Here is the input.
Amino acid sequence: MNKIFKKIIYIISIICLLYSHVSSEEKIKIGLLVPLTGDDSSLGQSIIKATKMALKDIGTDNIEIYPKDTNSNPTQTLSSASEFKDMGINIVIGPVFHKNLIYLNELNNITFLSLTNKTINLPKNVISTGINATSQLNTIKKFIELNKIEKTIFLTPKLDYEVEIKKGIKQSKIKVFKYHVYDTEPTELTKQIEKITNYKVRKQNVFDEIKRIENSDLNESNKKRRIEKLKKRYTLGNLNFDSIIISDFDESLKSVITSLLYTDVLPKNKYIISFNQWFNKSLVEEKTLQPLYYPSINKKNLNEFNNSFYKEYNEQPNHLCLLSYDLIGLIYYLSIKNNISEIDNLFKVKNSFKGKIGIFDIENNKINHRLSFYQIDQNKIKEIF
Here is the structure.
C-alpha cells in the first residue's frame, strides 16, 4: 500500500513540475497601437524600436509584441484594436494621442495604456500613462513646501488643457493664492500681466515718490541722490506673491516670462516655476529668463536612454519612446507578481514600479509619476531633488 501511495505522490509531483514549467513559459502578448502610416508614422516606428530595446534589456523570451497601425485616426484605431481582441490580447500599449481613444470603450476586455498625459474623459478601459498635471503639481508642491513659499499665483493659458490643470490643482491639494487664465495673444497677454502684477500702480509709485522727495525738506544733495536712485527703478512697491506657476511651454512660456520682466517681476526676486519642459535647450540659453524651475523625469536616465537608442538605431528618439520602454518593463514586472490573465485587477491594486522615467505609482486604474525637480540658472540645469 505504501509503495502505491508513494507512486501516486511521485506522479502528482511530476505533473505539478510539468505544469509549472509550461506556466512559466507562457508568452505574454502585448499589443502596440501606434501610428505606422500618415504624418506621425516616424513617431510610431521610434516607439516600436524603443519596445524592442526594452525586450533586449529585460532579457526574456516570454514577451511578444504585436504592433498595429492607428494612422492617428480614431476609426482606424478601433479597427486595429479589434484585431487584438481576435488574437486574445488583453493588454495594449497605446494609442499615443487622446483623440484616438473615443471608441475604445467598445473593447471592454482589453486594457489600453495610452501614452497621453490627459486624464479627463477617458474610457473605463484606458489608463493614461503620460506625465500628467497631477504628477507635476505634486512635485511642485513638494518644492514649495521645502522652500516655505507662502503665496503662489497660478497662470494658465486659455487653451484646451485648462480643465486638466484645474483637476491637477484639486488632486494635488497645492495651495494657490490666486488663479489667472491668460490670453496667448501678445498684446492681450501683456495687458493681463500688467493687471496681475499691479504694474501701473507700482510704476506710478516711482513718480509719486520722486515728487514727494522734491517737495520734502531734505537738503539738495540728499534729494538729488535719492531722486537719481529712484529714476533707475521701473517700479516701486511690494508684490503680493512669492512664486508664480506657469502651465505653459516653449515660445509661449517665454512670452509670459518676458511680460513679467517688462512689469519688473524678476526671476531672481520671485520663484518662477513652469511645467515639464523636457530639458528644452532654448530655455537654457535664455539667461534673462533664469532662474527657472520645473518638474521633469530623471535627466540622467533620459540621457543614457537617448545615447543607447542613438547607438542602436542611429537616430534621436522622441521623449515618448522612453515612456514606451518603461511600460514594457512595467507590464513584465506586474506579470511576475500577478497573473497576467487577471488584467482587470493589475492596475487596481496599489503598487509602485521604478522605471527610467522615475517611479510609477499605480492605484485604482490610475498611474501617477514621482518626478525630479530642476533649476535652470546661469545657462545650466541643476537637479534640486
Q: What stands out?
A: The mean pLDDT is 92. The two ends are 69 Å apart (CA to CA). The chain has three domains: 28-131+299-369, 134-185+239-296, 198-236.
